[in-house]
Amino acid sequence: MDIRKYFLESEYLQRFIPNFSFRDYQADLAEYIMNALADYNTTVIEAPTGSGKTLAYLLPVFELGRKTIVSTKTKQLMSQILNKDIPTVSALFPEKDTEVVSLKGRKNYFCYYRYFKFISPDADMYPDVIRWYESNTPEISEVPQHLFGFSTTEKMTADSMQCIGGKCPYFEVCPFYLKKAEAADADIVVTNHFMLLSDMGMRYKNDMMYNFEFADNIIFDEAHSLPDIFPQFIGDDVNFGSLMTFLKENRVLMSESTYSFFQNKFAGIKGELESKKVINDRIQDELEIFFSELKSLAESDFDDENYELYKKYRDKFKNIFNTEGLRLIEPHKNSFSLKNLPLSVSDSFGESLGKICVSSIFISATLSVNGSFDYFCNELGLSDVATKKVEGGGDFLKNGVCCIPEKEFYGEKKLEAYFSIIKKLEGGCLIIFNSLEMMNKVYNYLRMKKTGRQLILQTEVDLSQIDITAETVVLGCSIVREGIDFSGNNLKYVILDKLPFENISDVYLNARKEAFEKEYGNAFMNFYLPRAVIYFKQAVGRLIRHEDDNGAWIILDNRVLTKAYGKYFMDVLKDVQVCHRLSDLPSFAGGNNELH
Question: If we measure between CA atoms, which residue out of 279, 266, 217 comes closest to residue 58?
Fold first, then answer.
């Protein structure tokens, strides 16, 4: 099976992709993945931005025709794979009837049971929902969450706690279970990491509520995020926002004083929370009192359905305090969650992975640090696996230039520096911060100073829906660093406010660091620094996405020059021209000026 022909011969990719150009490293990558999948070899691959990794793994998947799960980080990336890449590859195999199905979390799908329980009886209160339902029946599948508020969609979707499964009178027509059945029969299932890792967590805990059938292969695209996502599904959690919604929905079953008791306990605990913290004895006592009262209510007044849901919350609550791990309480905007998170998933990840597939491909642009995959492999307990670093795709970085001022800026001086930079730059600009506090401070300062630019704050818009113009300045944190791709080539500058070291006051991060140090030594070099370098790679990767892109990175943190560890960050930009004054930067307005 010569996979390279699809890249070389005119009747294949050249026919379906306008201006397609052969890249040797992309064909080599596809060939490598083909051999790994064919031999059921698990491998970890770093493929730089622009190397064409999606086509490089989809072609072997279609060629082999085995049951495969493709998992990526976000629903937006799922959409890109489903609507752009798969149709292109599928067109190359007209003789194959390859069935491709996407599967998302059940909260994306319409729940008839909750709709007829909470929406339909109060039709006058939800005329827009009723019109939507009547105009879409019987083709309803996913809920258009952008059309309705959170509290409304909450009433016609079900999470794993709320879903009553086979006991539901609408089970046979349930959009989620119909989609799950389609996925069971499909050749390729496209999903996201949260959905798939949740399933793996259930398998590890021997929960029988699986959503995915056993697969020959899994492709983990954007695999760098797995070590941070998987711990959420190995431990247990109780979302008090969901629990309070459950109580509100059953308010008719309790006295006013009982309902007020739950509200006051909830508000009292939430009022003490400013940030994530370890659950202390006093908070645990308050939670025990809450659940003791809930137990009395459930045993005296709940019907069988509500009692079963109460038991789910009760069992999760007990598991949080009876299972080894770090017990945390984490505030949300209007609620909080209790969590028990493991400090290491190196054993559990491998065990659960073996229960869902034969072999896996882990691929991302940001997996290695200084040429080594040790951090990523150690976090997931991946041993005796092949690793590959694709050379060639990262040459696009040479289209950029990096400015690192030798002077360090603090306080008001840094705000003034931002104003000066934004006034001088010509072209779209993305500023990436480590904290929301600093992001808001700079945003408010630039608004006050009236830069004449279009300022966009990540918390105020859907960034995936905006187009960057020459006047746009986007201010954001990790969400823009980890994978928001802006359309067009008007983005000319990426500014890093600080090197992306994580907040050392985060209690879970510190606990993981200490556990990691016991296992591998030197927490800074083996934990904090590798994570920061990976985040730095992600930030750098926002700018140069294709061969014809150009632009500049501006790093407002001179530690990259003055500290010994700075070389690990500069290695990411090792082939990039570096200057130290803004006046030495070329102008990229219109994308016409040469860099070198």
Answer: 217
